[in-house]
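Translate sequence into structure tokens.
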Amino acid sequence: MDIPLGLLDEYLGYTKCSKKRNDKKLFGHLQKVILFNLKKINEGLGG
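Result follows.
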């Protein structure tokens, strides 16, 4: 799974660099990352 550069800093902020866990924000962010990857796969299939 690829994490695009625009979302990488945000991802790191919710995981490695986080001082306090916020699952709701992390979940929302992971949805963006998954959507990005699904679009990338769709484009690769000629969609």
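Note: Residues 7 and 25 are 13 Å apart (CA to CA).
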